[in-house]
Amino acid sequence: MKGRVKIDSFVRNPIERTETEIAMNEICVSAGKNVYEIIQDSGFDFDSVATYVGAASGPRWLVASGFDLSLLKSGVLGNKRPTVLAGSSAGAMRFSAWMQPEPEKSYEKLIEAYIAMNFTRKDTPETILQSIRNLIDFYIDDDALSFALTNRKYRLAIMQCPQPTHDPQVFSEGGVSQQSDPAIFLSQPRFQGTDDPFE
Predict the structure, then answer these.
(1) CB of 158 closer than 8 Å to CB of 93
(2) Pairing relation of β-strands 154-160 and 83-87?
(3) What percent of the chain is helix, strand and coil (3-state, nearest 5)?
(4) CA distances from residue 67 to 19, 42, 104, 145, 157 in whole angstroms, order as listed
(5) 31 burial via Cβ count (<10 Å: 0-12, 13-18, 19+)
(6) Over the stretch 86-144, which tens digit does the pLDDT of each residue have?
(7) Dihedrals φ, ψ of 34, to 5°?
């Protein structure tokens, strides 16, 4: 059983709603059976969001930029436990901005630089790659890695899928190369026992 939930109906305390919750007044969420029942029973709670996924959507990510900035400015995610920000390509770029010391400023710089990129038929893979490197250098701070590794609100998961190949000797049944495995890079190492600074 799946259901559609109007968020405004299930926000816990309608009197103390945040700007984000008010803006989400007319949003409907499709949810699986378990999530739908939880929302029906106890209401929608941002603290229950464990993972926020950003698709590899090309320039369509700009449509989500207002939603991202609303979540960033309101600070509703990652308050009780770190939220995993998982994405590849455009999703990874968006969430890398979230990991910066000044995430809103970094995100706005990403939007500015992304929109300003211009490619022609004369561009090569090398020139396109250099443009993307310039984009990353523009919106990500030089000391961003250490800040991302100690971020208490968010954990970044960047996913990379294997490159397809046309060599019939390495095709799997589904046509995907067996030469390389998908990789996931987490911004924080897994700790065991009491060494975990996030517990």
Answers:
(1) no
(2) parallel
(3) 45, 15, 40
(4) 12, 24, 12, 25, 20
(5) middle
(6) 998 999 999 999 999 999 999 999 999 999 999 999 999 999 999 999 999 999 988 88
(7) -65, -45
d(CA 169, CA 192): 41
To 10 degrees, the CA torsion angle through 117, 123, 124, 127?
A: -40
Task: Give the span between the Cα atoms of 30 and 14, in whole angstroms.
Answer: 21
pTM: 0.68
Distance (Å) of CA 179 to CA 162, 169, 175, 176, 193: 8, 10, 12, 9, 36
Q: Is the pLDDT of residue 7 over 60?
A: no
**Count, residues in the chain:** 199
Q: Encoding tokens for residue 155?
A: 């954990």
